[in-house]
Write a structure and sequence with these properties.
The protein is mostly helical. The chain contains twelve helices and no strands.
Length: 288
């Protein structure tokens, strides 16, 4: 029986990947993300200059063969900083989403399955949290924790938990009364085993799509926090911090703002295209 279940899940996975591979926009987004991840991982072997090397003699140099994206006010190579910056921006988006998804999935699955008073208490607490605009909530947490890479990551992760809980809870509640769960109860399967073995695998699809989209949203939010001085701070080459540091030079040296902005825009676009493709692959009925 267990072997049959593994074969069925493998066939479902292959079917999903086949549908995803037929979506050109999603595959383009996936290729872009893979390229960015590889650039971030092997940045040390790719960049032509040290990302924090100061060269005042070449400060504010426009893009050229020597400096493909120009230099900033301290003569640091912008191309090198953007490549290294992918490490910080992608890490914030990916790891904050991972924390949010894991905690939100656990809480959402438990409250969605049990329901009752426990569910009401948790959901009312989340109602209070979600009454505050998300960006304002993130700003409050970032202000309390202070600036920096880890504090920004924690602030974004905590801010995304309520939405993840609601998403998983809704999926679990829609399937908690189906027949195969009643069969699990009839053979005295433990509640935790029922939730994490029988319920979650059939309720996790929306969370996978949401997590992909959430990475893009958190990269944008992290850039926003850095831009207003509450996220990652200079000289760390996070894309939002680079935008914040170069905003005073936008009139005379617009390339200093253009390239970090393009890096953020391309990454968010790629993740959104991949997320749309995953949504259609996981549930083809949603596709128009």
């Amino acid at each position: 029986m267990a072997k049959q279940m593994r074969i069925k899940r493998n066939s479902q996975f292959l079917d999903i990947m086949h549908r995803l591979s037929k979506n050109k926009a999603a595959m383009a987004g996936l290729v872009l993300i893979i390229i960015e991840v590889l650039l971030a991982v092997f940045a040390k072997f790719i960049v032509p200059y040290d990302w924090n090397a100061i060269d005042i003699a070449n400060a504010n140099s426009f893009p050229s063969l020597q400096h493909l994206m120009g230099t900033d006010e301290l003569g640091r190579d912008i191309f090198s900083r953007i490549i290294y910056g992918a490490r910080y921006s992608l890490s914030i988006g990916i790891f904050a989403t991972l924390i949010t998804t894991v905690i939100g999935t656990f809480i959402g699955a438990v409250v969605g399955y049990y329901g009752g008073t426990f569910d009401n208490i948790i959901m009312r607490i989340l109602d209070v949290i979600q009454a505050m605009p998300p960006i304002l909530f993130n700003i409050c947490i970032a202000t309390a924790l202070g600036s920096g890479f880890m504090n920004t990551l924690v602030a974004l992760a905590v801010g995304g938990i309520p939405g993840a809980v609601r998403l998983v809870r809704g999926s679990v509640m829609s399937i908690r009364k189906v027949e195969y769960l009643e069969s699990a109860d009839s053979i005295n399967c433990s509640k935790m085993r029922t939730i994490f073995v029988h319920v979650l695998p059939n309720a996790i699809s929306p969370s996978i799509v949401s997590a992909t989209m959430n990475v893009a949203n958190l990269i944008l939010t992290a850039a926003s926090l850095s831009f207003i001085g509450l996220g990652v701070q200079a000289p760390t080459p996070e894309w939002g911090a680079m935008l914040s540091a170069s905003r005073n030079y936008i009139r005379n040296y617009p390339y200093m703002v253009l390239f970090p902005g393009l890096a953020i825009a391309i990454t968010v676009l790629a993740l959104n295209m991949l997320g749309d493709g995953l949504r259609d692959a996981l549930d083809p009925k949603l596709k128009d």
